[in-house]
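In line with agreed milestones, the collection of sequences with tokenised folds has grown. A representative record is reproduced below.
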Amino acid sequence: MAVQVGLRDLYYAVLTKDDSTGVTYQTPKKIAAAINAKISPKTNSETLYADDGPVETASSLGEIEVELEVSDLPLDVQAELLGHTVSQGVIIKKSTDIAPYVAIGFKSVKSNGKFRYVWLLKGKFEVPESEYKTMEDKPEFQTATIKGTFIRRDWDNAWQKIADEDHPDYVPNIGQNWFSAVEPPTA
């Protein structure tokens, strides 16, 4: 059994359309070198009791919390993920800025050398915390973390896509084209 041992190639794509007629994304762009990705789906469950015991259970998916740690969060990426603007190398953050819905994609190498490919399909990020620390005699890296909330798409209720290279039905061009588009073009 192969297990996840790595994380790389973190991308985002702005969602421009999600309704009953379909879904459209802009071309995916790389964020920065990935350090950690934590995906925490929330589920709500209820159990029906009758005849002195449980007889039925039902669950529903709620929001999906996502936390990404990256080597850096460049100004242009921050601006696009959070609805800010950049002018002459200066990011301008306003209280009226609205973050767009985006998809987040990455791949993770497994212990057998094969990759798992992931897309989270619809979410918004929140303004990240900032922390700065003086340099001391021993270097200490200061990385960036950004948190977001993801939900299902309106078009098809999908919230995530995962492909495994070691699945028996895997088609190699899936991984080769994973970051070229969130949704493959329809023929």
User: Anything to note?
Assistant: The chain has one domain: 8-42+60-132+140-176. The first helix runs from residue 75 to 82.
